[in-house]
Design goal:
single chain, 423 residues, alpha+beta
């Protein structure tokens, strides 16, 4: 793993030199955050290894920031434009098995909920169940069937697993951190062949081999003859390193490239730019600002009921968004009279209610996400931006209390890890 981290760090440095060449590559502040970004990606790869055995499924919360839990400190597992508002959970599955997912909403519903079936290592969305279409009983509970049978017309609470399926991802997006609650979830594998070494090492997730085996009953029975290892630590370490090198360098280069297609400080109307985010639109770019510059973003949500503007560094991950206002969503921001939103991104506080701090960075990336679309409205969101010195900002004076804004963030963030308060 340590060797893989060294290779990954070198690969990311080269990717940043290429993608941020127009502004001279990554600056010193971003280079100082490279080690932490690599560590978090390595943590995420290690967690993903625990998902590989789809015959023994486990729902794991992922893409977490650094936090304390059960008197232990976790250094984080953020990757690829993590959303401060979203609780991410993944589970490994294969289409030779059948599963049942049960869950419950215990409080105010999240702004957006999705269950997505992903295929291949790149995570292409093959099926999706939106929270709006989820049938929930009077107590907030629900059951979802999951198997290789395509969803029939009129069938509810079902996910189809085509050949090549590797994961189900779930996302609860919380617009109001202090009132909305993520769902509780569990999964049970109800049929399929016995656990095996093939499944334990993630054989069903291997491109080409996995779909071939899962779609052939004879091959599935043959690979099931070899039982799993009692303590597979060495294979798991090798797999974690392999995931880091196969996906880490190419993936980071790809998502840096998404942000740097335009000139710096240019954000345009949103589009689909990630295979695993088929239910969202994104407006992605990067900023390059002086200490006293402001990037002014105008957002008209139109048919999107939810949006968020998070600042991420050159390595496409957030920094401290619980103690600093480095993101704002539709619930946290104040709208203009015409329903649009004006967001100011800057290093220093511009004295405007809708400020998104860069967290001390002069350079970084931004991926504005739009979700929860109104099917009756066909007008997509719009985004525009310009740069101006903070001293020349001409924005309406809207009353605000910055300390209260930060306190609300801290309270909502702590709620996620209750009863373990975060420092």
């Amino acid at each position: 793993m340590q060797l893989a981290k060294i290779i990954l760090k070198a690969g990311w440095w080269l990717a940043a030199q290429k993608n941020f060449a127009a502004v001279g590559g990554p600056d010193q502040a971003n280079l100082a955050q490279l080690d932490q970004a690599v560590t978090e990606y390595a943590n995420q790869a290690a967690i993903e290894v625990l998902l590989l055995n789809s015959n023994s499924p486990k729902i794991l919360q992922q893409v977490n920031p650094p936090h304390d839990w059960y008197v232990q400190s976790f250094s984080g597992a953020r990757i690829w434009y993590d959303n401060p508002d979203t609780i991410y959970r993944f589970v490994g599955v294969n289409n030779a098995s059948k599963y049942v997912i049960t869950g419950r909403f215990d409080g105010s519903l999240p702004a957006d909920t999705n269950f997505s079936v992903l295929t291949g290592l790149s995570g292409t969305t093959a099926d999706n169940l939106n929270g709006k279409d989820l049938v929930v009983d009077s107590e907030g509970s629900f059951t979802i069937t999951v198997d290789s049978t395509p969803t029939a017309p009129g069938q509810t609470n079902h996910l189809y697993l085509p050949p090549g399926t590797t994961l189900i991802t779930t996302r609860n997006t919380l617009a109001d951190w202090n009132s909305e609650e993520p769902m509780s979830l569990s999964i049970l594998r109800v049929s399929g062949l016995p656990d095996s070494l093939f499944s334990q090492i993630g054989g069903f997730a291997i491109p080409g081999i996995g779909p071939l085996v899962s779609s052939n009953p004879l091959l599935t029975r043959l690979v099931s003859l070899i039982p799993p290892l009692p303590a597979p630590r060495i294979p798991q370490s090798v797999e974690a390193a392999t995931i880091m090198l196969l996906l880490g360098i190419s993936g980071e280069d790809k998502y840096m490239g998404v942000a740097t297609q335009q000139a710096p400080n240019v954000l345009t109307d949103p589009a689909h730019n990630a295979e695993f985010l088929s239910t969202q639109l994104q407006s992605t770019g990067y900023f390059h600002l002086g200490n006293d510059d402001a990037l002014v973003i105008t957002i008209t949500p139109n048919n999107a009921k939810y949006f968020v503007v998070p600042v991420t560094n050159d390595w496409t991950i957030t920094n401290n968004y619980w103690d600093e206002q480095t993101s704002l969503n539709v619930s946290q921001a104040v709208a203009n009279g015409d329903g649009s939103y004006t967001i100011v991104v800057s290093r220093s506080d511009p004295g405007f209610v809708n400020w998104v701090s860069t967290g001390g960075l002069n350079q970084g990336t931004i991926s504005i996400r739009f979700q929860d679309f109104d099917p009756a409205n066909t007008t997509d969101p719009t985004v525009s931006s310009y740069v101006v010195p903070i001293s020349q900002l001409n924005l309406p004076a809207i009353p605000y209390d910055r300390q209260a804004q930060i306190a609300a963030r801290q309270l909502g963030y702590n709620k996620r890890y209750w009863p373990y308060p975060q420092a």
